[in-house]
Design brief:
heterodimer, A: 215 residues, mainly alpha, 6 helices, B: 246 residues, Rossmann fold
């Protein structure tokens, strides 16, 4: 019953908002008080409201993170200790930023000496993950596509970062050629597909045929 | 005013409407085989039977930004997974790297429970924000696979290179990882790291392949028509240039 009551309103709001924002791409700012100017002004207001709602969602997202980890501690889950430290760090950072502001000395220290090194370490771990993934790929899905993928990945590495600084003749030239011609053509093809998929998803929502945002 | 872009959008919308009406009248349509979604569909059924969980990771694409389409597809897939596996002992869990997306994941799961007829079984902590920066999102999503009896992970959304860490965690916990992203570097990484990678527009076909409704099928057919038109324009343009006509 509730579905019947709420869905048409949220759908209508989503469609109208989408149409106004989309129309803004084709309307040049015209005369003051004209239709184009009204639509563009409405579009600006809607986008500002969306930004505001996104900021509220960010706060709610942080609360959600907190609730999930409190739940993990309460239920005594396997890695509850990590959850405890997460909550501790979150509360501490929140208090620091609340008192000093985001540009404060301690807030800056926390970012430079805690968050940045941790994220950099994860970036380093990523390198090993990729090597392991490549080896796993050779074991799991050994076919022509995998062979081509691995061959060109290794060739790119050789072309961009020669071992001990020794450039293998022709490798750099060839890797430059395929990066600029073959890989670029492939990438454009994939991006065209991504673009078409994005337009189709947007239009499904504008037509009210798909409502992933609400029941 | 860019009339060409407007024309393409209007044509696209018209094709979706036509194919939607046809799909509603003719029922099931034939789709080409896409192993990733076939495997995912089977994995969801197995998860329901053997008491394990499906994890849908929605990436960190802002709903108000240009990467929202991938996130919205992820939400459609989540909703569908919720409808199939929502009443199992271990219901699906969703992680997101953006606040609004986290809220929408809760909404999608709530909707799935309502459509199953037992809205009170819905647990809001099933839709989670795992972190708000790329690596904190990955770091928050990784333990879900190891600690929460996850047998299949669908990584469907806008992600960057950090997605390799999530896929690797899935591989380590021996769960199936079906993954796609709208970013090229992430796609290249996922080709190696995921059990079943989704390349290019395959990401956007999730709803159609998981039975999310005739609108998804219609948009897939419209996409095919517009793609062929684009191919004709590109090949025609290249030939025209070669022959000196253009």
């Amino acid at each position: 019953m509730e579905k019947k009551r709420t869905a048409p309103i949220s759908t209508a709001v989503a469609i109208l908002t989408g149409l106004v924002v989309l129309a803004g791409y084709w309307l040049a700012s015209g005369q003051e008080g004209g239709l184009a100017s009204t639509v563009l002004s409405l579009r600006g207001n809607l986008l500002n409201t969306a930004m505001l709602l996104a900021a509220v969602a960010l706060v709610l997202g942080s609360i959600n993170l907190l609730v999930v980890h409190i739940g993990k501690i309460r239920h005594g889950s396997k890695n509850a200790l990590y959850s405890f430290f997460l909550i501790l760090a979150m509360e501490f950072t929140f208090l620091v930023v609340l008192i000093q502001g985001p540009q404060g000395t301690l807030a800056d220290w926390l970012f430079t000496y805690i968050q940045l090194p941790i994220e950099t370490s994860l970036m380093a771990v990523l390198t090993f993950s990729l090597v392991v993934a490549l080896l796993r790929l050779l074991r799991r899905r050994l076919n022509l596509y995998t062979a081509v993928f691995v061959f060109f990945a290794l060739l790119t590495l050789l072309g961009t970062a020669p071992i001990l600084g020794v450039e293998v003749p022709m490798v750099s030239d060839f890797s430059r050629y395929y990066a600029q011609v073959m890989a670029s053509a492939g990438a454009r093809g994939i991006l065209l597909g991504v673009g078409l998929g994005s337009v189709a998803t947007g239009l499904r929502i504008l037509l009210g045929a798909d409502r992933p945002y609400a029941e | 005013m860019n009339w060409l872009a407007l024309g393409v959008v209007v044509l696209f919308a018209g094709l979706i409407v036509v194919f939607w009406l046809l799909a509603r009248r003719n029922g099931d349509a034939k789709l080409r085989r896409l192993a990733a979604y076939e495997v995912l569909e089977r994995a969801i059924s197995y998860a329901v039977e053997d008491g394990t969980r499906v994890h849908v990771s929605l990436g960190r694409g802002e709903v108000t930004g240009p990467n929202s389409a991938a996130a919205l597809v992820g939400l459609s897939v989540l909703r569908r997974v919720g409808e199939i596996a929502g009443d199992s002992d271990e219901p699906p869990v969703a992680t997101a790297g953006e606040g609004a997306l986290g809220l929408l994941s809760q909404d999608a799961l709530r909707g799935a429970y309502r459509s199953l007829g037992h809205p009170y079984s819905y647990d809001p902590t099933l839709g989670r924000v795992s972190g708000l920066t790329p690596f904190s999102y990955a770091a928050g999503a990784m333990p879900v696979m190891a600690d929460e009896k996850v047998s299949a992970t669908a990584l469907i959304g806008s992600t960057g290179v950090e997605t390799a860490l999530i896929a690797s965690a899935g591989n380590r916990s021996r769960s199936l990882v079906v993954a796609g992203s709208d970013s090229l570097p992430a796609q290249a990484i996922l080709y190696a790291a995921a059990s079943q990678p989704l390349i290019g527009e395959e990401l956007y076909a999730g709803g159609a392949y998981l039975g999310a409704g005739s609108a998804h099928l219609a948009s897939l057919h419209a996409q095919d028509v517009v793609r062929w038109l684009l191919i004709l324009v590109i090949v025609g343009g290249a030939l025209g240039k070669l022959l000196g006509v253009l």
